[in-house]
Amino acid sequence: MRLLPLIWWHAWRHRGRSALLVGCVAIALLVPLLSRSLAARFEATQRERAEMAPLVVGAKGGRFDLVLASLYFRPAPLDPLEHRHFDRLSQDPLATAVPIHARFTAAGDPIVATDVGYFQRPAVPLPLADGRIFARMGEAVVGANVAARHGLAPGSSIFSDVAEAYDITKPPSLKLNVVGVLAPTGTSDDEALFVDLETAWLLEGFAHGHDDAEQIDRPDLVIARDQDRVALSEALRTYQEVTEENAASFHVHGSRDAFPLTAVLLYPVDARAKTILSARLNARDDLQAIEPSQVVDELIAFVVRLRLVFDAISVVLAASTAALIALIAVLGYRLRADELRTLADMGASRATAAVLVGGELLALVLLGIGLAGSLAWLAILLVSRASAFV
User: Fold this and answer.
1) pLDDT tens-digit profile of 24-58?
2) For position 111, what pLDDT does the model report?
């Protein structure tokens, strides 16, 4: 312990060299620490998310796109599934079906239209932290991170994003009234807003609400009128919020059977039902049934290959750092020859000289290890907050 002031003084006196050594050790350790920690976290979160739904049904196309769009709500070039497919799947006694419509956003966060079955899913139930589940169109339940990011709580509101700002034929932005906040889950559910399918039809432009057509007396807004119906101009202003007063005026145009969905989550009653449904759906020309766990396994295999590359880089960095430490030790011993000779003349033993030189190197290496651990922890924390995908 008496030598510690001498070790500290020498390291501080040559702080440029000390900082270089600490930095080299930290970088050599940071690469494998980060790659392995992030890969382990990615694998754990993806497997947990994949277990959320045994089967995902969508239109024929990319398997990865279907899983990313339906479980992680990421934009993907998917052909839509028609609502009639969900109706038929929901009548099948072999499984419980949950619709997913994820084609719009609010303040950049995905709006996911579904039904209450999504919050009561067998594998991973989704509890509320505050408020209640949506009960009518225009109401929204928000994920924990969305609520924190935008300061949302039951009683507040948020507007949907306009898909094409310069296209006047598209529906205007819709005011979503927040009625509930989900408990944090550490998954993509934290990053989304959940509404019912009727709200999705509003956002798509298949439904709207406006003043009573019989009461409109402006000629420029009435294209035609007869005893049975009134044809209104698209210039008629529609409501941008569903309230108690105007809720009855909202109505749907067109057939719901053809309305688009992103996917349908299937929860078979047992393994046999899962096999039957998967075989039956994959035999069709227009549908596919994907097991998310298989897709996630392929993603993880790709990540493992990337990690092996980083491991190889880490070995090279570790070898070069070890060579640098050895070089600094040899040169340091030579540069300190006069100092060590003086200490010997004063009666210091060779062991004391070895402790002075080796102790300084050990202290700098330990500082490098601590710096690498701190940077890795900070990076993982930032990545975790920035994306629920990792």
Assistant:
1) 888 888 888 887 888 887 788 777 787 788 899 99
2) 94
SS percent in the chain: helix, strand, coil, step 5: 50, 20, 30
State which of 5-14, 68-77, 118-127 shows the largest mean pLDDT.
Answer: 68-77
Predicted TM-score (pTM) of the model is 0.72
Of the candidates 24, 81, 113, 70, the residue with the CA atom closest to the CA atom of residue 290? 70
Return the closest-CA partner of residue 251 out of 215, 213, 209. 209
15-50 and 292-335 are packed helices; what angle lies between their axes, rounded to 10 degrees?
Answer: 170
- DSSP assignment, residue 71? H
Q: Tokens 């052909």 label which residue?
A: 79
pLDDT tens digit sequence for 74-93: 887 888 889 999 999 999 89
Q: Would you say 67 and 295 are in contact if contact means Cβ atoms under 8 Å apart? A: yes
Give the chain's largest Cα–Cα span.
118
- pLDDT over 80 at 139, yes or no: yes
User: How many alpha carbons fall within 13 Å on the CB side of residue 170?
Assistant: 13
Do the beta carbons of residue 373 and residue 22 sit within 8 Å? no
DSSP string, 159-227: EPPPS-TT-TTSPPP-EEEEEEEEPP-SSGGGG-EEEEHHHHHHHHTSEE--S-GGG---GGGEEEE-S
Cα-trace Rg, the chain: 31
**Directed axis angle between helix 63-71 and helix 292-335, to 10°?**
90
In this structure, the number of other CB atoms found within 10 A of the CB of residue 41 comes to 15
Report the candidate in 94, 126, 108, 103 with the shortest Cα–Cα distance to residue 200.
103
Residue 142 has pLDDT above 90, yes or no: yes
Q: Model confidence over 15-31: pLDDT tens digits?
A: 888 888 888 888 888 88
* Cα–Cα dist 261/172, whole Å: 20
Owner of token pair 């059977």: 257
Residue 237 main-chain phi, psi, to 5 deg: -80, 125
Cα angle 150, 378, 302 (rounded to 5 degrees) comes to 90
- Cβ contacts of 178 within 8 Å, gap of 6 or more: 131, 139, 140, 141, 142, 147, 152, 153, 154, 155, 156, 157, 158
Q: Which of 91, 88, 114 is nearest to 101 (CA)?
A: 114
- Count how many Cα atoms sit within 13 Å of the Cα of residue 113 in the half-sphere of its side chain: 24
Pairing between strand 109-114 and 95-106?
Answer: antiparallel
